[in-house]
From TrEMBL:
In the N-terminal section; belongs to the glutamate 5-kinase family. Can form homodimers/multimers. Pathway: Amino-acid biosynthesis; L-proline biosynthesis; L-glutamate 5-semialdehyde from L-glutamate: step 2/2; Amino-acid biosynthesis; L-proline biosynthesis; L-glutamate 5-semialdehyde from L-glutamate: step 1/2. Its EC number is 2.7.2.11, 1.2.1.41. It catalyses: L-glutamate 5-semialdehyde + phosphate + NADP(+) = L-glutamyl 5-phosphate + NADPH + H(+); L-glutamate + ATP = L-glutamyl 5-phosphate + ADP. One of its GO terms (biological process) is L-proline biosynthetic process. HAMAP family: ProA, ProB. It comes from Betta splendens (Siamese fighting fish). Keywords: Amino-acid biosynthesis, ATP-binding, Kinase, Mitochondrion, Multifunctional enzyme, NADP, Nucleotide-binding, Oxidoreductase, Proline biosynthesis, Transferase. It is found in: Mitochondrion matrix. Its main location: mitochondrion. Pfam families: AA_kinase, Aldedh. One of its GO terms (molecular function) is glutamate-5-semialdehyde dehydrogenase activity. This is Delta-1-pyrroline-5-carboxylate synthase.
Amino acid sequence: MFARLALCAHLPPRISHSNVYPVSIRAFSQQKFNLPRSHGKSFAHRSELKQARRIVVKLGSAVVTRGDECGLALGRLASIVEQVAMLQNQGREMMIVTSGAVAFGKQRLRHEILLSQSVRQALHSGQNQLKEMSVPVLEARACAAAGQSGLMALYEAMFTQYSICTAQILVTNLDFHDEQKRRNLNSTLHELLRMNIVPIINTNDAVVPPPVPSSDLQGVNVISIKDNDSLAARLAVEMKADLLIALSDVQGLYDNPPGSDDAKLIDIFYPGDQQLITYGTKSRVGIGGMEAKVKAALWALQGGTSVVIANGTDPKVTGHVITDIVDGKKIGTFFSEVKPAGPTVEQQTEMARHAGRALASLLPEQRGEIICSLAELLTEKKDEILSANKRDMELATASGLFSQALISRLSLSTAKLNSLAIGLRQLAVSSKDSVGRVLRRTRVANNLELEQITVPIGVLLVIFESRPDCLPQVSALAIASGNALLLKGGKEASNTNRILHQLTQEALSIHGVTDAIQLVSTREEVEDLCRLDKMIDLIIPRGSSELVRDIQRAAKGIPVLGHSEGVCHVYVDNDASIDKVIDVVRDSKCDYPAACNAMETLLIHRDLLRTPVFDQIIDMLRTENVKIHAGPRFASYLTFSPSEVKSLRTEYGDLECCIEVVDSMQDAVDHIHKYGSSHTEVIVTENEDTAEQFLQLVDSACVFSNCSSRFADGYRFGLGAEVGISTARIHARGPVGLEGLLTTKWVLRGEGHTVADFSEHGSMKYLHENIPVSHGSFN
């Protein structure tokens, strides 16, 4: 919570308006919003909403009031106030258009009437037992008059907790249509905003006439204030607001009435798209309805203000819905005048799923032909690929934003492309034994046979940083396994990714499944992609540990396959051969230090300290320019030690490593289990018993004896390619190749069998006989 900046004082008398009720003022905030913007044109993309400086938040009746329509939803309102205060204290200018006076007054008047009736009955009967009392229908204008002061007092109390002062303004149609009143209102609002005050605005429901249906929401200069939707739109345009956030009790606009089976939330709504939506009924309270919201939103958009309609009642998002919208996250429906040239990510996902089913139905040989075609294109078009990659490398280097390790991952070469092509051809051969393979066959009963067969997972989303060679690898695996694929690469490799995706689609076109693999090139945030839980079946992140952790947190409804870190260990046993030690340690650390399977911690048996073996290890690391960090125990043995390690769980991703001392093989295993990431661990020893114990005891995805940690790779394992290395303990572990992208389904074939046939008095008995499955047997 922000500290109080100054005591509030009454507004000076020079600020006055017949409809303004001064509350309090704090010292002007010294924090200025650092993204000034000239008003005139609405934002084209959600990501630009972070630049919004002046924001109107409209709170619908359903948001502000309780479910019984008597009284306010205090918890929900407090959460909204907290978000508005946070944005205000960032230096933005916030305004609130609020409903709720009628509900607040209704609660208050009902209480007064019931209290009055109970007193009269008590006096009349002289008894404590009261008859059942009924409350007359309360007139809305009277409720508004009784509720306005209480509603404003509540807002004032809530905002005071954040050292923010408020002012109330009640308006009617005349305040906008009478030129003098309109100028006065405009001047008052600008003065309040200048003094860092949040105006709380509402229609003066105590005097306003009942709404009359009309079609006057046309043109920039004509709009009647019939409800708070039209008020918020008129106010936003009048005050040249950058953003109008309209909160209601629905998620946004749907192409069909919300709640119907076919209803889909519209992410972005464009002028002229009205024919795409069907309006449902209006909310339980309020007088506008969704049609009024859309008309008001389009009117505001025409006037240069961006609009988002979102749900302000959902307890899962209410606590951050406003700040999420301003952060550019995919919340509700965003109104935009700029229609993108290509399909939306939702449309891309639908296209991929449809084409992916066609891909899965191809013969294994046909999928193999596609992969071989892609392998040929990688070598045939290598000059174009390397030219695009060179542009990416130059831009990344010139930007100064990327580490050398990341730039190393970005680089492609002729050798890399040739290696990729070899791996894809290897995969094309193995893919013939993939989709539709029978894993198990059982005779459940006479003429009732069961099969378990392999099938694609569905739609995969692979998010990767830097490494463009990931794109053809993952694409080939998706093709081999019959999965649809969405690819989201880093912008630092955009040129390379673009041409590699074009080549992939060219290969897919030979069997008419071009759309099965889509490259997401729109401004989609990773977090927004992770929310497509009804469209994506598995997410595979490939990149930094930070990226993987962020995706694992964001993808609450979608499984994530991957590892967050690659803290790999090499343990040098006291029975190790010096030649093997030098070769294995050098290769594990220096071959490609940016890889996730590179050694990060070198564990050395205590008996090797101050021996020629130890000295040669240190000399080799120094020769290779490896920076050494001393573990706590190692540092204790040295008079002048290297810099002591900050954490034994560090993934350096560069020519750096930690050295630590252990007492035994078991001590090394315990260290790995405590500080490792379950990725890849290595022992170097000539003692076969010690080596076997290490291989059995260490609980990691890959455990090696007397060989480099860099062998933890799908291509080197003979998988042809990999989508990544998984440290999970279910589904797939280690390098994930073709098998890791398949799931199973059960197929049962009968002749009119029923469960009743197998009951106690039925005529059939279960056999459950296993039927041998020959290698290469397909459904």
